[in-house]
Amino acid sequence: MSLTRRAFFGNSFAAGTLALAQAQAGGQAGFVEPSRSLPVDDWADVIVCGGGPAGVAAATAAARAGKKVRLFELRGCLGGVWTVGLLTYIFDFDKSATDREIMKRLDAYGARTIDHPDAEGMKRYRHGLDKDWVYEPEYMKLVCEDMCLESGVRVTLHCTVVAAYRDASGQNIETIVTESKSGRRAWRAKVFIDCTGDGDLGAQAGCGFDLGWTPDGFGQPATLNALVVVKDGDAIKDYTSNEPAMWTRAVYDGKQTCHHIEASHRLRDLLRSQGLDPSYGDPTLFRCHDNLFCFMATHAYKLRLDDAQAVSDATIRARKEIFRLADALAKLGGAWAGFRVAYTAEQIGHRDARRIHGRYTVTRDDVAAGRRFEDAVTESRFGIDIHGLDKKANNEKAAGQNFGAKFRPFQIPLRACRAKDVDNLYMAGRCISGDFIAHASYRVTGSSVAQGEAVGKAVADLV
Protein backbone atom coordinates (compact mmCIF):
# COMPACT_ATOMS: atom_id res chain seq x y z
CA MET A 1 0.00 0.00 0.00
CA SER A 2 1.40 3.40 -0.94
CA LEU A 3 1.98 5.98 1.79
CA THR A 4 1.90 9.69 1.08
CA ARG A 5 4.54 12.02 2.53
CA ARG A 6 1.88 13.76 4.66
CA ALA A 7 0.56 10.42 5.95
CA PHE A 8 4.08 9.21 6.73
CA PHE A 9 4.91 12.25 8.85
CA GLY A 10 1.46 12.19 10.41
CA ASN A 11 1.86 8.57 11.49
CA SER A 12 5.37 9.24 12.78
CA PHE A 13 4.15 12.21 14.79
CA ALA A 14 1.27 10.19 16.21
CA ALA A 15 3.56 7.34 17.23
CA GLY A 16 5.97 9.77 18.91
CA THR A 17 3.14 11.59 20.69
CA LEU A 18 1.76 8.28 21.97
CA ALA A 19 5.16 7.17 23.24
CA LEU A 20 5.73 10.51 24.97
CA ALA A 21 2.30 10.38 26.56
CA GLN A 22 2.95 6.85 27.78
CA ALA A 23 6.28 7.93 29.25
CA GLN A 24 4.69 10.88 31.04
CA ALA A 25 1.84 8.73 32.31
CA GLY A 26 4.37 6.35 33.79
CA GLY A 27 6.10 9.15 35.63
CA GLN A 28 9.16 9.09 33.34
CA ALA A 29 10.85 12.27 32.20
CA GLY A 30 11.72 11.52 28.60
CA PHE A 31 10.81 9.83 25.36
CA VAL A 32 10.32 6.07 25.11
CA GLU A 33 11.43 4.83 21.72
CA PRO A 34 8.98 2.33 20.23
CA SER A 35 10.41 -1.18 19.97
CA ARG A 36 11.10 -2.75 16.60
CA SER A 37 12.52 -5.92 15.12
CA LEU A 38 15.98 -5.62 13.57
CA PRO A 39 17.59 -7.81 10.91
CA VAL A 40 20.40 -9.90 12.43
CA ASP A 41 23.62 -10.95 10.73
CA ASP A 42 25.64 -13.74 12.36
CA TRP A 43 28.18 -14.36 9.59
CA ALA A 44 31.26 -13.23 11.48
CA ASP A 45 33.43 -15.17 13.91
CA VAL A 46 35.02 -11.92 15.10
CA ILE A 47 33.67 -8.38 15.08
CA VAL A 48 36.11 -5.50 15.46
CA CYS A 49 34.68 -2.11 16.36
CA GLY A 50 36.92 0.78 15.34
CA GLY A 51 39.13 0.92 12.24
CA GLY A 52 42.07 2.85 13.64
CA PRO A 53 45.63 1.55 14.12
CA ALA A 54 44.62 -1.14 16.65
CA GLY A 55 41.50 -2.13 14.72
CA VAL A 56 43.28 -2.59 11.41
CA ALA A 57 45.93 -4.73 13.09
CA ALA A 58 43.41 -6.84 15.03
CA ALA A 59 41.11 -7.39 12.06
CA THR A 60 43.85 -8.39 9.63
CA ALA A 61 45.52 -10.70 12.16
CA ALA A 62 42.27 -12.56 12.87
CA ALA A 63 41.31 -12.76 9.18
CA ARG A 64 44.71 -14.09 8.18
CA ALA A 65 44.27 -16.78 10.79
CA GLY A 66 41.28 -18.00 8.79
CA LYS A 67 38.47 -16.31 10.71
CA LYS A 68 35.50 -14.44 9.28
CA VAL A 69 35.95 -10.85 10.43
CA ARG A 70 33.77 -7.76 10.23
CA LEU A 71 35.19 -4.30 10.91
CA PHE A 72 32.93 -1.34 11.67
CA GLU A 73 34.28 2.20 11.40
CA LEU A 74 32.49 5.45 12.16
CA ARG A 75 34.41 7.57 9.63
CA GLY A 76 34.70 7.41 5.86
CA CYS A 77 38.11 5.74 5.84
CA LEU A 78 40.29 3.45 7.91
CA GLY A 79 43.25 4.63 9.95
CA GLY A 80 41.55 6.55 12.76
CA VAL A 81 43.90 9.06 14.38
CA TRP A 82 46.44 8.36 11.63
CA THR A 83 44.11 9.57 8.90
CA VAL A 84 41.02 11.49 10.07
CA GLY A 85 43.10 12.73 13.01
CA LEU A 86 46.18 13.67 10.89
CA LEU A 87 48.59 12.42 13.55
CA THR A 88 51.45 12.11 10.98
CA TYR A 89 54.18 11.21 13.51
CA ILE A 90 54.75 7.62 14.65
CA PHE A 91 56.36 6.62 17.95
CA ASP A 92 57.66 3.26 19.18
CA PHE A 93 56.78 1.41 15.99
CA ASP A 94 59.05 -1.57 15.41
CA LYS A 95 57.40 -4.31 17.45
CA SER A 96 55.26 -6.50 15.21
CA ALA A 97 54.85 -7.96 11.74
CA THR A 98 52.01 -5.51 11.13
CA ASP A 99 54.36 -2.62 11.89
CA ARG A 100 56.83 -3.84 9.31
CA GLU A 101 54.15 -4.44 6.70
CA ILE A 102 52.75 -0.94 7.11
CA MET A 103 56.21 0.58 6.76
CA LYS A 104 56.97 -1.50 3.67
CA ARG A 105 53.71 -0.52 2.01
CA LEU A 106 54.21 3.19 2.77
CA ASP A 107 57.77 3.00 1.49
CA ALA A 108 56.49 1.55 -1.80
CA TYR A 109 54.53 4.80 -2.24
CA GLY A 110 57.41 6.98 -1.06
CA ALA A 111 55.08 8.17 1.69
CA ARG A 112 57.30 7.80 4.77
CA THR A 113 60.05 10.10 6.07
CA ILE A 114 62.39 8.35 8.50
CA ASP A 115 63.67 10.25 11.52
CA HIS A 116 67.44 9.64 11.40
CA PRO A 117 69.14 10.07 14.78
CA ASP A 118 72.87 10.75 14.76
CA ALA A 119 75.75 10.10 17.12
CA GLU A 120 74.98 13.33 18.97
CA GLY A 121 71.40 12.28 19.71
CA MET A 122 70.33 12.45 23.35
CA LYS A 123 70.90 8.97 24.70
CA ARG A 124 67.58 8.59 26.45
CA TYR A 125 65.75 9.47 23.25
CA ARG A 126 67.86 7.61 20.73
CA HIS A 127 65.70 5.52 18.41
CA GLY A 128 66.30 3.15 15.53
CA LEU A 129 65.38 4.06 11.99
CA ASP A 130 61.98 2.37 12.11
CA LYS A 131 60.80 3.48 15.56
CA ASP A 132 59.96 7.12 14.82
CA TRP A 133 58.89 8.53 11.46
CA VAL A 134 56.50 10.81 9.57
CA TYR A 135 54.00 9.67 6.94
CA GLU A 136 51.51 11.13 4.48
CA PRO A 137 47.94 10.59 5.77
CA GLU A 138 46.28 10.00 2.39
CA TYR A 139 48.62 7.11 1.63
CA MET A 140 48.02 5.69 5.09
CA LYS A 141 44.31 5.46 4.22
CA LEU A 142 45.18 3.38 1.17
CA VAL A 143 47.57 1.13 3.10
CA CYS A 144 45.06 0.38 5.88
CA GLU A 145 42.24 -0.34 3.47
CA ASP A 146 44.35 -2.53 1.19
CA MET A 147 45.59 -4.60 4.13
CA CYS A 148 42.07 -5.26 5.37
CA LEU A 149 40.51 -6.02 2.01
CA GLU A 150 43.38 -8.26 0.89
CA SER A 151 43.06 -10.17 4.19
CA GLY A 152 39.37 -10.82 3.63
CA VAL A 153 38.04 -8.44 6.29
CA ARG A 154 34.53 -7.17 5.56
CA VAL A 155 34.81 -3.43 6.16
CA THR A 156 31.78 -1.20 6.76
CA LEU A 157 32.49 2.53 6.86
CA HIS A 158 30.16 5.33 7.97
CA CYS A 159 28.79 2.97 10.59
CA THR A 160 28.72 3.43 14.35
CA VAL A 161 28.04 0.92 17.12
CA VAL A 162 25.25 2.25 19.32
CA ALA A 163 24.40 -0.63 21.66
CA ALA A 164 25.64 -3.98 22.96
CA TYR A 165 23.52 -6.68 24.59
CA ARG A 166 24.66 -9.66 26.63
CA ASP A 167 23.30 -13.19 26.44
CA ALA A 168 21.13 -14.86 29.08
CA SER A 169 24.15 -15.74 31.19
CA GLY A 170 25.23 -12.11 31.31
CA GLN A 171 28.82 -13.19 30.73
CA ASN A 172 29.07 -12.67 26.97
CA ILE A 173 28.09 -10.09 24.39
CA GLU A 174 25.54 -11.76 22.15
CA THR A 175 24.46 -8.89 19.88
CA ILE A 176 25.61 -5.42 18.96
CA VAL A 177 23.55 -2.79 17.14
CA THR A 178 24.84 -0.33 14.55
CA GLU A 179 23.42 2.77 12.85
CA SER A 180 24.25 3.74 9.28
CA LYS A 181 22.56 4.93 6.10
CA SER A 182 21.22 1.37 5.87
CA GLY A 183 19.37 1.94 9.11
CA ARG A 184 19.59 0.12 12.39
CA ARG A 185 21.09 -3.38 12.18
CA ALA A 186 21.98 -6.14 14.65
CA TRP A 187 25.12 -8.29 14.44
CA ARG A 188 26.36 -11.38 16.24
CA ALA A 189 29.78 -12.97 16.55
CA LYS A 190 31.68 -15.32 18.84
CA VAL A 191 34.20 -12.69 19.93
CA PHE A 192 34.22 -8.88 19.91
CA ILE A 193 37.21 -6.54 20.01
CA ASP A 194 36.89 -2.94 21.16
CA CYS A 195 39.33 -0.87 19.10
CA THR A 196 37.30 2.33 19.25
CA GLY A 197 40.09 4.10 21.11
CA ASP A 198 37.57 5.67 23.46
CA GLY A 199 36.29 2.33 24.79
CA ASP A 200 32.80 2.84 23.36
CA LEU A 201 31.92 -0.84 22.95
CA GLY A 202 33.05 -1.73 26.46
CA ALA A 203 30.95 1.07 27.91
CA GLN A 204 27.92 0.05 25.85
CA ALA A 205 28.31 -3.51 27.11
CA GLY A 206 28.15 -2.26 30.70
CA CYS A 207 31.80 -2.82 31.57
CA GLY A 208 33.41 -0.88 34.37
CA PHE A 209 36.00 1.69 33.33
CA ASP A 210 38.13 4.59 34.55
CA LEU A 211 38.39 7.94 32.81
CA GLY A 212 40.87 10.76 33.20
CA TRP A 213 42.98 11.84 36.15
CA THR A 214 40.58 13.97 38.18
CA PRO A 215 37.35 12.81 39.87
CA ASP A 216 35.30 14.60 37.20
CA GLY A 217 36.95 12.57 34.42
CA PHE A 218 39.24 15.26 33.03
CA GLY A 219 42.63 14.14 31.82
CA GLN A 220 45.09 15.01 29.12
CA PRO A 221 44.11 17.71 26.60
CA ALA A 222 42.92 16.87 23.11
CA THR A 223 44.50 18.23 19.92
CA LEU A 224 43.14 19.11 16.49
CA ASN A 225 45.84 18.83 13.82
CA ALA A 226 46.00 20.32 10.33
CA LEU A 227 47.90 19.92 7.09
CA VAL A 228 49.50 23.14 5.86
CA VAL A 229 51.53 24.11 2.79
CA VAL A 230 54.27 26.69 2.27
CA LYS A 231 56.09 27.81 -0.87
CA ASP A 232 59.53 26.61 0.26
CA GLY A 233 59.64 23.90 2.91
CA ASP A 234 63.40 24.16 3.22
CA ALA A 235 63.12 27.79 4.30
CA ILE A 236 61.36 26.86 7.58
CA LYS A 237 63.43 23.81 8.52
CA ASP A 238 64.67 25.53 11.70
CA TYR A 239 61.06 25.48 12.88
CA THR A 240 60.39 21.88 11.80
CA SER A 241 60.69 19.18 14.47
CA ASN A 242 61.71 16.26 12.27
CA GLU A 243 64.57 18.04 10.54
CA PRO A 244 67.25 16.83 10.88
CA ALA A 245 65.81 14.57 13.61
CA MET A 246 63.61 15.16 16.62
CA TRP A 247 65.90 13.91 19.32
CA THR A 248 69.28 15.26 18.24
CA ARG A 249 71.01 17.46 20.80
CA ALA A 250 70.31 21.19 20.63
CA VAL A 251 70.56 24.35 22.73
CA TYR A 252 67.82 26.97 22.84
CA ASP A 253 67.67 30.07 24.99
CA GLY A 254 70.83 28.91 26.75
CA LYS A 255 69.32 25.57 27.79
CA GLN A 256 70.40 22.08 26.77
CA THR A 257 67.52 20.44 24.92
CA CYS A 258 66.70 18.45 21.75
CA HIS A 259 65.92 19.60 18.23
CA HIS A 260 62.15 19.09 18.62
CA ILE A 261 61.96 21.39 21.64
CA GLU A 262 64.28 23.90 19.99
CA ALA A 263 62.15 23.99 16.83
CA SER A 264 58.81 24.16 18.65
CA HIS A 265 60.01 26.93 20.98
CA ARG A 266 61.24 28.93 18.01
CA LEU A 267 57.79 28.58 16.50
CA ARG A 268 56.06 29.43 19.78
CA ASP A 269 58.16 32.54 20.29
CA LEU A 270 57.54 33.62 16.70
CA LEU A 271 53.79 33.34 17.23
CA ARG A 272 54.03 35.23 20.52
CA SER A 273 55.91 38.01 18.74
CA GLN A 274 52.76 38.42 16.65
CA GLY A 275 50.62 38.77 19.77
CA LEU A 276 49.37 35.17 19.75
CA ASP A 277 49.73 32.61 22.51
CA PRO A 278 48.93 29.14 21.15
CA SER A 279 46.89 26.88 23.42
CA TYR A 280 49.64 24.24 23.06
CA GLY A 281 52.93 25.38 24.58
CA ASP A 282 55.04 23.39 22.10
CA PRO A 283 53.45 24.15 18.70
CA THR A 284 54.95 21.72 16.23
CA LEU A 285 55.54 21.37 12.51
CA PHE A 286 56.27 17.94 11.01
CA ARG A 287 57.37 17.80 7.39
CA CYS A 288 55.35 15.17 5.54
CA HIS A 289 56.50 15.76 1.97
CA ASP A 290 58.36 18.63 0.29
CA ASN A 291 56.20 21.68 1.10
CA LEU A 292 53.49 19.78 3.00
CA PHE A 293 53.54 19.87 6.82
CA CYS A 294 51.46 18.75 9.76
CA PHE A 295 50.69 21.66 12.09
CA MET A 296 50.04 20.66 15.72
CA ALA A 297 49.36 23.81 17.71
CA THR A 298 46.10 23.43 19.64
CA HIS A 299 45.07 21.94 22.97
CA ALA A 300 41.56 21.58 24.38
CA TYR A 301 41.72 21.30 28.16
CA LYS A 302 39.31 19.74 30.67
CA LEU A 303 37.45 17.88 27.94
CA ARG A 304 35.57 14.63 28.55
CA LEU A 305 35.51 12.45 25.45
CA ASP A 306 31.98 11.27 26.30
CA ASP A 307 30.51 14.81 26.27
CA ALA A 308 29.48 15.21 22.63
CA GLN A 309 28.59 18.89 22.88
CA ALA A 310 31.82 19.77 24.67
CA VAL A 311 33.85 17.85 22.08
CA SER A 312 31.98 19.62 19.27
CA ASP A 313 32.56 23.05 20.80
CA ALA A 314 36.25 22.29 21.39
CA THR A 315 36.70 21.10 17.80
CA ILE A 316 35.21 24.29 16.38
CA ARG A 317 37.32 26.48 18.67
CA ALA A 318 40.49 24.58 17.77
CA ARG A 319 39.82 24.85 14.04
CA LYS A 320 39.36 28.61 14.40
CA GLU A 321 42.65 28.83 16.30
CA ILE A 322 44.51 26.90 13.59
CA PHE A 323 43.45 29.41 10.94
CA ARG A 324 44.28 32.35 13.20
CA LEU A 325 47.81 31.04 13.83
CA ALA A 326 48.38 30.11 10.18
CA ASP A 327 47.24 33.52 8.97
CA ALA A 328 49.65 35.24 11.36
CA LEU A 329 52.56 33.19 10.03
CA ALA A 330 51.59 33.83 6.40
CA LYS A 331 51.56 37.60 7.02
CA LEU A 332 55.23 37.45 8.03
CA GLY A 333 56.15 36.74 4.41
CA GLY A 334 59.70 35.71 3.62
CA ALA A 335 60.22 32.08 4.65
CA TRP A 336 56.52 31.91 5.56
CA ALA A 337 55.25 33.07 2.18
CA GLY A 338 52.33 30.96 1.03
CA PHE A 339 51.82 29.36 4.44
CA ARG A 340 48.23 28.17 4.20
CA VAL A 341 45.89 25.63 5.75
CA ALA A 342 45.18 22.82 3.27
CA TYR A 343 43.07 20.54 5.47
CA THR A 344 42.02 20.28 9.11
CA ALA A 345 41.46 16.98 10.86
CA GLU A 346 37.93 15.57 10.89
CA GLN A 347 38.22 14.55 14.52
CA ILE A 348 39.96 16.06 17.49
CA GLY A 349 42.65 13.74 18.82
CA HIS A 350 41.99 12.46 22.35
CA ARG A 351 45.04 11.42 24.35
CA ASP A 352 42.84 9.98 27.07
CA ALA A 353 40.31 7.16 26.81
CA ARG A 354 37.93 5.11 28.85
CA ARG A 355 40.24 2.52 30.37
CA ILE A 356 38.03 -0.57 30.37
CA HIS A 357 38.50 -2.75 33.44
CA GLY A 358 40.39 -5.89 32.43
CA ARG A 359 41.61 -9.13 33.96
CA TYR A 360 44.76 -7.19 34.86
CA THR A 361 45.36 -3.46 35.28
CA VAL A 362 48.74 -2.11 34.19
CA THR A 363 49.90 0.31 36.87
CA ARG A 364 52.42 3.00 37.69
CA ASP A 365 54.33 0.40 39.71
CA ASP A 366 54.56 -1.87 36.66
CA VAL A 367 56.00 1.01 34.66
CA ALA A 368 58.55 1.91 37.33
CA ALA A 369 59.66 -1.71 37.69
CA GLY A 370 59.74 -2.48 33.97
CA ARG A 371 57.43 -5.42 34.71
CA ARG A 372 57.54 -8.54 32.53
CA PHE A 373 54.62 -10.96 31.98
CA GLU A 374 54.30 -14.53 30.71
CA ASP A 375 51.31 -13.52 28.57
CA ALA A 376 52.89 -10.31 27.24
CA VAL A 377 51.50 -8.97 23.96
CA THR A 378 54.06 -6.16 23.50
CA GLU A 379 56.54 -3.93 25.28
CA SER A 380 55.96 -0.21 25.74
CA ARG A 381 59.18 1.73 25.25
CA PHE A 382 57.66 5.19 24.92
CA GLY A 383 58.18 7.26 28.07
CA ILE A 384 55.46 8.68 30.30
CA ASP A 385 54.11 11.66 28.35
CA ILE A 386 51.44 13.70 30.13
CA HIS A 387 50.49 16.98 28.51
CA GLY A 388 49.59 19.68 31.03
CA LEU A 389 46.03 19.34 32.31
CA ASP A 390 45.41 23.07 31.84
CA LYS A 391 46.99 25.83 29.75
CA LYS A 392 49.02 27.25 32.63
CA ALA A 393 50.59 23.88 33.42
CA ASN A 394 51.18 23.17 29.75
CA ASN A 395 52.60 26.49 28.62
CA GLU A 396 54.57 27.53 31.70
CA LYS A 397 56.11 24.10 32.36
CA ALA A 398 57.29 21.38 30.00
CA ALA A 399 54.43 20.35 27.71
CA GLY A 400 55.26 16.70 28.34
CA GLN A 401 55.41 15.75 32.03
CA ASN A 402 55.60 12.50 34.00
CA PHE A 403 54.02 13.50 37.34
CA GLY A 404 57.19 12.31 39.07
CA ALA A 405 56.71 8.71 37.94
CA LYS A 406 59.69 6.52 37.10
CA PHE A 407 59.87 4.72 33.77
CA ARG A 408 61.44 1.55 32.48
CA PRO A 409 60.30 -0.29 29.34
CA PHE A 410 57.46 -2.55 30.48
CA GLN A 411 55.30 -5.28 29.00
CA ILE A 412 51.53 -5.33 28.56
CA PRO A 413 49.85 -8.67 29.35
CA LEU A 414 47.00 -10.15 27.32
CA ARG A 415 44.92 -10.09 30.51
CA ALA A 416 44.91 -6.27 30.34
CA CYS A 417 43.36 -6.61 26.87
CA ARG A 418 40.45 -8.81 28.01
CA ALA A 419 37.43 -7.27 29.72
CA LYS A 420 36.87 -8.19 33.35
CA ASP A 421 33.09 -8.00 33.13
CA VAL A 422 32.48 -9.75 29.77
CA ASP A 423 34.15 -13.00 28.75
CA ASN A 424 34.11 -12.56 24.96
CA LEU A 425 35.15 -8.90 24.83
CA TYR A 426 38.77 -7.95 24.18
CA MET A 427 40.36 -4.52 23.80
CA ALA A 428 43.34 -3.15 21.89
CA GLY A 429 44.67 0.40 21.82
CA ARG A 430 44.10 3.29 24.21
CA CYS A 431 41.15 1.64 25.95
CA ILE A 432 42.95 -1.35 27.50
CA SER A 433 43.07 -1.77 31.27
CA GLY A 434 45.61 0.50 32.95
CA ASP A 435 45.94 3.45 35.28
CA PHE A 436 46.48 7.04 34.18
CA ILE A 437 50.27 6.90 34.43
CA ALA A 438 50.71 3.63 32.51
CA HIS A 439 48.23 4.85 29.89
CA ALA A 440 50.41 7.92 29.30
CA SER A 441 53.05 5.55 27.88
CA TYR A 442 51.11 2.83 26.04
CA ARG A 443 48.62 5.25 24.44
CA VAL A 444 50.83 5.83 21.36
CA THR A 445 49.96 4.07 18.12
CA GLY A 446 53.08 1.91 18.02
CA SER A 447 51.77 0.11 21.09
CA SER A 448 48.21 0.07 19.73
CA VAL A 449 49.22 -1.77 16.54
CA ALA A 450 51.27 -4.38 18.40
CA GLN A 451 48.39 -4.94 20.84
CA GLY A 452 45.92 -5.25 17.98
CA GLU A 453 47.97 -7.86 16.16
CA ALA A 454 48.47 -9.94 19.31
CA VAL A 455 44.81 -9.75 20.32
CA GLY A 456 43.64 -10.62 16.79
CA LYS A 457 45.82 -13.74 16.83
CA ALA A 458 44.73 -14.66 20.35
CA VAL A 459 40.99 -14.49 19.66
CA ALA A 460 41.47 -16.43 16.42
CA ASP A 461 42.68 -19.35 18.52
CA LEU A 462 39.45 -19.22 20.55
CA VAL A 463 36.87 -19.44 17.75
Write up what this structure looks like.
This protein has 463 residues and is of the alpha+beta class. Helices cover 30% and strands 21% of the residues. It has helices at residues 5-25, 53-64, 97-108, 137-151, 200-204, 259-273, 308-331, 364-369, 391-396, 436-442, 445-460; strands at 40-41, 46-49, 69-72, 89-90, 112-114, 133-135, 154-156, 160-166, 173-180, 183-187, 191-194, 209-211, 225-229, 249-252, 255-258, 284-289, 292-296, 340-344, 354-356, 376-380, 386-387, 400-401, 410-413, 425-427. The strands form eight sheets. A five-stranded parallel sheet has the order 7-3-2-11-24. Helix 2 packs parallel to helix 11. The two termini are 45 Å apart.
